[in-house]
Amino acid sequence: MQAFLQTSLVGGKDGTRFDDVFTFVIPMVDGIQITYQLANGGTTTLNHGGQSSSAQIIKLSDDESLVGVFGRAGPQTYYKRDMINNIGFVFFNDKTDTVRTVGPFGNSNNSNEGTSFYSSNVFAFGGFAVSENALGLSGLFFYRS
Q1: If you average pLDDT over residues 134-144, what whole number do you get?
Q2: Exposed (0-12), middle (13-18) or buried (19+): which is 120, by Cβ within 10 Å?
Q3: 18 pairs with which residues across the strands?
Q4: Is the alpha carbon torsion for 121, 118, 104, 23 positive or negative?
Q5: What is the spatial distance between Cα 112 and Cα 28, in angstroms, rounded to a whole number?
Q6: What is the chain's Cα-based Rg?
Q7: How many CB atoms lie within 10 A of CB 41?
Q8: Domain 5-144 is in which class?
Q9: In the structure, what pLDDT confidence band is assigned to residue 51 with cuts at 50, 70 and 90?
Q10: What are the CA-CA distances from residue 59 to residues 22, 110, 111 (Å)?
Q11: Distances (CA, A) of 139 to 51, 88, 95, 114, 119
Q12: Strand 81-93, strand 22-25: pairing
């Protein structure tokens, strides 16, 4: 059995917990949607938090892997609660030996709320989310190898 580590929660605990990269951008990160490719060739998609028509889609090539997640999380003054204020992702292409960074997404009001976070070797996400668009992604933790 492979050992893994769950990181500390960043952000808050409002909403429903999920354990399972697609972000919705307003003053904070409103939601995350992850599509997994299954062993049988199919896919499954999981949504957490709100959804928006202005979402940013991040596609990975078959040669890329997620090597880091970064952002800011904590008190959000407009909504008066802890939230994921912004998030970004770092990918490594093992065919070309290149790194690609996307984001950060969120923080459209250019504030500096919350504290910085970074996690490497992420293979799964967990956290808390509220399904209402205006309340979104409360907090995240990461499963690491």
Answers
A1: 76
A2: middle
A3: 127
A4: positive
A5: 11
A6: 15
A7: 6
A8: mainly beta
A9: low
A10: 9, 25, 27
A11: 16, 14, 33, 12, 14
A12: unpaired
* Listed residue (36, 35, 65, 47) closest to 130, CA to CA: 47
Q: Which amino acid is at 126?
A: G
Task: Please report the DSSP string for 24-79 in residue order.
Answer: EESSSEEEEEEEEEPTTS-EEEEEEE---TTPEE----TTEEEEEEEEEEEEETTT
pLDDT by residue (tens digit) across 75-116?
A: 888 778 888 888 899 989 999 999 999 888 877 667 778 889
pLDDT for residue 142:
82
- Sign, CA dihedral 120-124-130-136, equals positive
